[in-house]
Amino acid sequence: MDANTWRVCSTCKQAIAFGVGYYVCNVSTCNRKATDFAFCSVACWDAHVPTFRHRDSWAVEQRAPARAAWEGERQRHETEAAERATRAAERVQPTPIVQADDVPVDTLIVASKLKAYIRARSGMSTSDTVLDVLSDRVRTLCDAAIDNASQAGRKTVLDRDF
């Protein structure tokens, strides 16, 4: 793009200069940030209609911003994005780990499910003492996953943390 080009047409890729007229689609899904279509002519707008299967749509004439106004707006958006990133980085605090004395030591395993699984896989019975040992192993895995999520700056433990 040259210095006089504001954007390019979404259909023919011709330059749309600063301060000139262009067209947008009236359909809201065509005007989102992710799509944000702009067309240099009604013919270019009309070419996109069959692709997106609009039932009732029309071209809306707009005027491209002046170069100075566009650069000021772009600078403002960049500044706001940098400020948001800074605030987000300041908000991320490592999750405080509660001491082991304050954490309840309950059985984390459903006994009937575990016993049914072992019986189905092997035909063996399961001792009740297995539940405590297995719960301790699950706690160890969970503690490691909590550390991984905390180091990533998240407050949610995800599957990838395990």
Question: Ends: how far apart?
Answer: 47 Å
Question: pLDDT average, as an integer?
Answer: 86
Radius of gyration: 29 Å
For the biggest β-sheet, the strand order reads 1-2
Largest sheet, if any?
A: 2 strands, antiparallel
Name the poorly predicted regions.
Answer: none
- Taken in chain order, the helices and strands follow as EEEHEHHH
| Percentage of residues in DSSP E strands | 5-15%
Q: How many runs of DSSP E, i.e. beta strands?
A: 4
Q: Give the domain tally.
A: 2
Describe what you observe in this structure.
44% of the residues lie in helices and 10% in strands. It has 162 residues and is mostly helical. The protein has 2 domains: 5-91, no CATH class; 100-161, no CATH class. β1 (5-8) and β2 (15-17) form a beta hairpin.
Question: Notable features of this structure?
Answer:
two-stranded antiparallel ribbon, mainly alpha, 4 helices, elongated, 162 residues, single chain
Summarize the structure.
This protein has helices spanning 42-52, 67-91, 111-122, 129-151, and strands at 5-8, 15-17, 21-25, 59-63. It has 162 residues and is mainly alpha-helical.
